Structures are given as structure tokens and as C-alpha cells.
Amino acid sequence: MNFLNLKKITIKQLQWLAWIAIFLVSFFSMVTVDAFTWSLTYSLINTGFYAIIIYGNINWLFPRYYERNKKFIYVILVIVFLTLCGFGRGYLITFVYNTFFSIKPITIEWYRLIYLSISGIVIFILSFMLRIVLAYFVLKQQTEDILLQKTTAELNLLKSQVQPHFLFNTLNNIYYEAYLEAPKTAELIERLAAMMRYFVDESPKTEVTISTELNFLENYIALEKIRIRHQISINFIKDYSTDHLLPPMLMMTFVENIFKHGIDKLSDKNQIEITLTALDGNLLFKTVNSSNKNTVDKGGFGIENLKKRLTILYGNRFELHTELIANCYTAYFKIPI
């Protein structure tokens, strides 16, 4: 049983304690003037109907009608509900009393039924108090859960910081050794270290600068190129005057798809064009690569996930298009900045 379930059971236990208290108050207020068994039975019937009124409202009538803006229907149903409960309680009490306790049967008067129906209004009002109390306990539990998750996340973050720092320091040492013997290899190690720092320091942020994002993309492209046997023609066009902010890793999806699905590793005719333009308060990012239907995003979820993320970030204030025409695959998005 986990911590959350334990809390839910505690709420139920509190409700049970409340109902036991209501039953005992009713029972001890009657037992001084009536027989023990009748006081017990009468208190059980009354407490049962109180529960029907309260939970019938907070679990069925209120959420199904009032919260769905069906207030008129809600009022009508409440009146019918309280009337039925009042009449039902009156007839049940009379039936049980006549059957098991009374020597001479009694009849229930109509004013008594009306009184029981009207008295149900007080219990009905109490149902809103119970609803507020339950909402408070649920909110309190959720707050405690969030604080617990936050504390756990902070502890995990502190633990995880040890490994990246060790790796960065180790890479710096390897870079120094490689620089003395193979400067080109050292350059690649430096790019890898920069990418790792981006993942640790920048990607958790809500926004990064365009230059930071571009630097990450350029390092990624440089490392991907060493895995391709033949030379790749890449034309990266950048046209922006201000270092705007944007969510991290948006442009990565298109570039990653090119190297995952749009590169023919056996061909020496791979051509890639990447364009980034800031214009009229919008950022336009476009990639075009020579490809064919067999190498374009085979069952990948990258574009679909990017669309969901853009929807969360910008609502309907973005454009996203992909198309395959002839032997060129184009991916394009436009976002406000």
C-alpha cells in the first residue's frame, strides 16, 4: 500500500468517525426517554437517511447538474429528492415501529411527513460543509504530495550533479591529452562536452537564447557528420538580428530527423539546407534535405511530439508543415517570439 492510498483511507476513516459521532449523539439523546432497542433502531434509520441526503447531493446532484450549469433542473431535483427522503424516512420509521416495537399500531400524519421533508433541508445544507471539508483534505494531501515530490526531485538533482561534473572534468582532461596528439579529435571532444553541458544546464530551462540553441545544433551536426562515410553538403542560413528567447530543443527535432531518416549513408549526394529567420515577431525554421520515401521518418514520433509541444506552448499561434515533393523532404515551423 503506497503513501497516497494510505491518505485516501484516512479520509474515509475521518468520515466514518463523523458518522459514528452523529449516530451516538442521536442515540444518547433518545435512550434517556425511550427503550434501548428503539433508540438504537431510530438512530440508525435517521443516520442512514442523513447519509443518503448528504452523499446524494455531493456525489450525484451537485456535480451532475449544478456544476454543469443546469441550476434550474438542480433545484427541482433537490426539492423532489428531499421530499422523497422525508416521506421515505417517515414511512420507514412508522413501519419499523409498528412491526417490532408498538403494541398498538400508529398512523403517520401528513404534517409529520412534511416536517421530515423540510428538516432534510438542514442536512442538505450540511452536505456543502462536508464537501468543503473533503475538498480541503484532498487539497492538503495534494500539497503534501507536491512538496514530497519536490524534495525528492531536489535530492535526485543533487545526486545527479555529481556524475555530470565528473564527466565534464574527465572530458577536459581527455581533451587536453587529445589536443597534443590529435587536434581534430580534441575539437570533437570539445563539441561533445558542450552538448552535455547544454543538456544539464540549458535544456531544463523554459527558454534559451537562439545563439545557445544554434550552438547546440552545430555541435550535434558536427558529431553526426563523423558517422557518415561520404561528405554531406550542409547550407546553414541564419538571419536574425536580436538574440531572442525560445523553448529549448524545438529545432532539434527537424535536424535529428534528417540524420536519422533523411540521410542515405551510402550516397555521396546528400544535400541539406537549414534556414533560420526572425521576421515580424516570428521565428521561422526550415529544413530541406534530399531524400526518398524509404528514408523519411519511418514510423517516428518526432514530428507528432513536436506538434503536441507547440500546441501546449503556443495554442493555435504556430504553423507546422512537412512535405515530400519529388526527391526533397521539407519541414517547417513558425512560432511567435
UniProtKB/TrEMBL annotation:
GO terms for molecular function: phosphorelay sensor kinase activity. It comes from the Bacteria. Gene3D superfamilies: Histidine kinase-like ATPase, C-terminal domain. The chain crosses the membrane at residues 16-38, 44-62, 74-93, 113-139. It holds the Pfam family His_kinase. InterPro entries: Bact_2-comp_sensor_kinase, HATPase_C_sf, Sig_transdc_His_kin_internal. GO terms for cellular component: membrane. Residues 153-231 form the Signal transduction histidine kinase internal region domain. This is Signal transduction histidine kinase internal region domain-containing protein. Keywords: Membrane, Transmembrane, Transmembrane helix. The keyword Ribonucleoprotein does not apply.
